Amino acid sequence: MNLKKLSLYSLTSSLMLLMSSSVFSADTDVIKNKLEKEGYRFVQQIDAPEGLEGWTGYRDEYPSTVFISKDRKHYIVGDLYDASGKNLSEEAINTHVKGAVLDEIWKSLEKSAWIQDGDSNAKKIIYVFNDPNCPYCHTFWKQARPFVESGKVQLRHILVGVIRPSSKGQAATILNSANPAEVFKQHNLSNGKNKLVELKNMPKDLSEKIDNNNKLMDKYGFYATPAMIWKDAKGEIQSQQGAPKDINKLLND
């Protein structure tokens, strides 16, 4: 994956499979309440064709538009086009939902199990999906040292277990240690040659944390490590997969 913004609108395809057109005999509040109970968050009411009430919102960070019939008997979750073929839902999503979804993405990263690397007050924060058996992760860790040690950048390493069967147990060993940051540092300094012993009898909560990290990585479309997510100078979320070719551009963006 090349350096690029996370595509918010492209995520709607998955949501459409989950929330296709449906018909219910109910008033609008019941319909809204039903969708909210299913995890849908309404953001902003929007213009809609005659006979419909329009809304923008999102579910599981997937944005969409919802249209409720004014007779309060039907609703549809999907795209709205005008006669020329222009997608009006995309425009409404970019206007009203984009910021809310970006906030949700950032909050989900903050809640993951990660290791602090660098000054916690550093303005630039980069979340890095990191597998203990990933040689490119060690490369990126070393490339980033000047930026981290200068206090300009802080890395938050989200440990995952995706490369080898031993990865999860090794990630657990790091997270379960008395000083995870130091163990993680020494592991990277050795380029992973100082093999970590897999944690046996892994506590359930720790196992779930790593599994959740794996799910988060998959959710955002990453299939290899390291994978990075950060905010640029404009506050837009950016992402990159693989060791960066231009470390200066990434860390100075």
TrEMBL record:
Q: Name one GO cellular component term.
A: periplasmic space
Task: Report the locations given in the UniProt record.
Answer: Periplasm
Show which residues constitute the signal peptide: 1-25
Q: Which SUPFAM superfamilies match?
A: DsbC/DsbG N-terminal domain-like, Thioredoxin-like
Q: Which InterPro entries match?
A: DiS-bond_Isoase_DsbC/G, DiS-bond_isomerase_DsbC/G_N_sf, Thiol:disulfide_interchange, Thioredoxin-like_fold, Thioredoxin-like_sf
- Judging by the UniProt lineage, the source's domain of life is Bacteria
Residue ranges of domain Thioredoxin-like fold in the record: 120-243
List keywords of the entry alphabetically: Periplasm, Redox-active center, Signal
Protein family: Belongs to the thioredoxin family. DsbC subfamily.
Report the function annotation for this chain.
Answer: Required for disulfide bond formation in some periplasmic proteins. Acts by transferring its disulfide bond to other proteins and is reduced in the process.
Q: What is this protein called?
A: Thiol:disulfide interchange protein
